[in-house]
Amino acid sequence: MRVLLLACFMSLLMPFAHGQITQIYAELYAQHDESGDAELVGMSTYRIYVAMTNEDDELSAIFGDSESPLSISSSTGFYNHSLGSDLGWEINPALLSFFPEVSFDSWLTVGAANSGESANMGNTIGMEEAFESFNSGGAFVVDNPIGGSIFTLAGDPNAAAGDDLRVLIGQLTTAGVVESSLNIQMFITGLQSQNAVVQDVAIVFPSGCNDEEACNYTANGTDASSCVYPTECQDCSGNCIDENANGTCDCDEQNDVLGCTDLTADNYNAAATVDDGSCMIGGCTYVTAHNYESNATYDNGSCTFTGCTSLSALNYDSSAAADDGNCLFLGCMDPLGFDFDPIANVPGSCEYPAPCVADIDGDGAVDVFDLLIFFESYGQPCQ
Question: What is the maximal distance between C-alpha atoms in the chain?
Fold first, then answer.
């Protein structure tokens, strides 16, 4: 152990620019809801990775001591299954089909998530007290003078960055906020002579929703678990959803009473909260009627029509209920006629008085003046 720590301390003298660790980050592995094990409800399972630069970079050790403490804690503790293990490479994959909850056990490792993936080159030293606390749901802390380490031998294929340029170092299942400080030793391009150390590095957990369909989508988001979606009742702005545009939230309609809400309708329903278009309103449906009702849904025989109501008129209408002032009366329209009719508006024949032949001067009387005119004209040829 002292040899390992000495190597770590010596590596600190190397410029950090040679170190190939770019980040230690968490990736969401599972989100637990009511459909799964009750003990896991509300928790999230994360896989923890060390990101490197070259495919042949190797992770050598995860370590801690009094000068460089190693700590991983959660505000709510960690989930640890009774059939799980402290180390990922010790978990028997055969158990998982019988006890699927073991898949979400919390553990540390170097590269391997179960014994089937392990190259059997990993080991630990000085970690007993830290794992005891961790297994009881507490924090994982190594901060004593002697120190402790999870390490593997050079050439372990599980410790190489590989095509995805990362090495798995743990799995954490929790519902809380994780705080951490990790120290990592690595071999640059797999060469033990090129070892490097990074210290006091915190695990970066996902942040920002990465689903474009979510209300809180963030362009550079990495956390699907933080996504918020419209509900059945409300859109992203909190407005109620009213797809049928009836003025009532769709979710509220399950409590609605459908019926006719028109007080004037024959079938008005006082208990109805949503009008279903079933209202029956009686009235006159003839557009030409005097009392036509545009809101009537059926004709109730009440229509009244206007027309000529005078029996003596040419256009008398026996069905008319009100006179429209358009009666036509035939008669003499000449005031000089004996039969002049003052209400006549259709010209008819007129009778006039017989003409008085002897009234030559046309003054309405036969007198001496008419006689003088006669004698004056007597004997004259008629033209």
Answer: 177
Is 30 part of a structural domain of the chain? Answer: yes
Number of domains in the chain: 1
Q: How far apart are CA 55 and CA 20, in angstroms?
A: 11
CA separation for the pair 105, 47 (Å, rounded): 11
Rounded to whole angstroms, the Cα distance separating 332 from 329 reads: 10
Count of C-beta atoms within a 10 Å radius of residue 325: 7
Q: Would you list the DSSP string of 9-35?
A: HHHTTS-GGG--EEEEEEEEEEE--TT
Q: Which domain holds residue 165?
A: 2-213+218-225
The amino acid occupying position 36 is G
Q: Which residue has the tokens 């699927």?
A: 100
Reported as a single tens digit per residue, the pLDDT across 235-276 is 888 788 777 777 777 676 666 788 999 999 999 999 888 888
pLDDT tens-place string over residues 268-310: 999 888 888 999 999 999 888 888 999 999 999 888 888 899 9
| Tokens at 75, concatenated | 């505000």
Whether residue 264 lies inside any domain: the answer is: no
Q: Distance between the two ends of the chain, CA-based, in angstroms?
A: 165
Q: How far is CA 227 from CA 30, 104, 215, 217, in A?
A: 14, 22, 7, 7
304 domain-assigned: no
